[in-house]
Every structure is written in C-alpha cells, then in structure tokens.
Amino acid sequence: MQDTLPFLSKNNPFPPLLSSPHHHHHKHHDFPSLSRPRNLHFPTFSSKTITSPLPPKPPKIPEIPSISPPPSSHSDFQEKMLHLDSIGLDFFSLIQHHPPIITTSLDDLKSAVDFLTSFNFTTLELRRILSMCPEILTTKPTSLLPIFTFLLREARVNGSDLKKVINRRPRLLTCNVETQLRPTLYFLQNIGISESSHLEMN
C-alpha cells in the first residue's frame, strides 16, 4: 500500500485540500470570482431637452375689410347716406347685406324709392320693406313695374290689397316674373289654389 501511494505521508494520509498560496493565486487568475459584480452597460440618455410637440395653431379667421367709398365718389357716397337716412334706413347696415348699393347711383336709389311711394307706401312701410329686402334699392322701376302688373292682372290681387300683399311678402319685388312668379302661379292653379288666395292665407 505504501509502495503504490508514495505521495501520502504517514502522518497525514490525505492530501491537502487547499493548494499553496502561489497555486491559489494562479487559480484566482484563471477563474474570475463569482462575487465580483459584472460591468452592466446601461443606455445613456441624451442631455438634450425633450420637448413635446406643440398643438397645431388654430386657423386664422379672415378679417372682414372695412367698406370705404372711393375717393372720387365721396360726395355721392354722402348724399346716398343722407337720403337713406331721411327714410330711417341705416346705410352701413344696408351695404353690409347688399354691397351693390355702394356702386348704385343716387338717382337709381331715388327712383326705386319714388316708385314705391307712388303706390302710397308710407315711410314706415318703406323702411320695413327696404330693410328686409335692400335688393329693391338697386332694382330699376322698369323691372319693378312688371311685378305689380303681374300681381294685379294675372294673380288677380285686388288693388286695395296690393300694399298688404307687398308688406307681407316684400321679397316678391325681387322675383322674376318669367322664371319665378308665373311658373309658381301655374302650379298653384293646377292644384286648385289661386295666387291671391294663397297670399291672403299667409
């Protein structure tokens, strides 16, 4: 037994479990310690400031340009304003709803007002009719006359009721006889309602 195991000492039959310090240092060099923390690589953050996107800008509301008279027609502009003011009409309110009044001559405005006055419309009635339908001010009497003729002859409105019909429906004075009033009258007649009866009911 002693011949086969010559490296075993008599006093210490078991080999040392720990190696020499030099050998231990060598082992430590070959196998890294498990207790040493590993170098973990974390992503680096940029030092730039992170900004959230701004909300979209609301659309700009277009500004309504102020209406001013041309320099060359300043006096005509004032005369039209004074004439309509004498009836009790706000000139700037009228041109806001119907801008062509600006370019309509003073004579044309007067002729439209005079035409209605010839049918005995009072100033109060004119103020209401023209405020509701300022387009009448830019309509020539030659275009207004066929409407009155149509109402009296074809629609058979009584002369005494003519003012009442116009006061109830001033927009009739802005309609075209050929393309609007007459086709409407024929339609009502076909279903058994006359235009005059229809106007009186409303």
Give me the Rg, rounded. Answer: 51 Å
In percent, how much strand structure appears in the residues?
under 5%
What is the helix content? Answer: 40-55%
Structural class: mainly alpha
Helix and strand run: HHHHHHHHH
Unreliable segments (pLDDT under 50, ≥5 consecutive)? 1-9, 17-31
State the helix count. 9
Mean pLDDT score, rounded? 75
Overall geometry comes to globular
Give the strand tally. 0
- Our measurement of the CA-to-CA distance between the termini, rounded to an integer number of angstroms, reads 138 Å
Largest sheet: none
Helices and strands, with pairings:
Elements: H1 21-30, H2 74-87, H3 91-97, H4 106-117, H5 123-132, H6 141-154, H7 162-168, H8 177-190, H9 195-201
Can I get a quick summary?
With 202 residues, the chain is mostly helical. It has helices spanning 21-30, 74-87, 91-97, 106-117, 123-132, 141-154, 162-168, 177-190, 195-201.
List descriptors.
202 residues, mainly alpha, 47% helix
Can you describe this structure?
One of its GO terms (molecular function) is nucleic acid binding. It comes from Herrania umbratica. Keywords: Transcription, Transcription regulation, Transcription termination, Transit peptide. The chain has nine helices and no strands. The chain is mainly α and 202 residues long. Among the domains are: 66 residues, no CATH class; 63 residues, no CATH class. The radius of gyration is 51 Å and the shape is globular.
